[in-house]
Each structure stands twice: as structure tokens, then as C-alpha cells.
Amino acid sequence: MDIVKLIGDRLTLEENGNKFKSICPFHINSEDFYTLLIDPEKQTYTCLKCGAHGGLEEFYKNYEGKTSL
Known about the structure:
This protein is of the alpha+beta class. Helix content is 22%, strand content 25%.
């Protein structure tokens, strides 16, 4: 599975050069700022505000509250 598809099925993404960005769902008071950066080449995500980061498994686990895909 592709991380852009996984996150894009759950959040609104905007292209940002060769990466994507979105509003981070992992911190309280998520403003309307795009702080979640998704790197399709590395298959990772990083939030510039709360520090959430990882790959497919971590995003799925944190977003869905489950332990595996």
C-alpha cells in the first residue's frame, strides 16, 4: 500500500512539489495549517508541529487506533 493513498483516503491532501501536505490529525487544536508533510518517495510522514512521524504502520496505528494494517 502507498502512504499517499492511505493518508489521502483519510485526510485532504495538497501537492507540495514532489511531496504532499495536510492538516495533522494527531494534535489537539489542529488549526487550518498544513503541518503534516508526506513523502511518497520515502513512504513517511512528519508533523512539523507535534512531531508525529513514521511510515504506513505508524500512521495506521495512530489514526485508526489499531496495531496493524
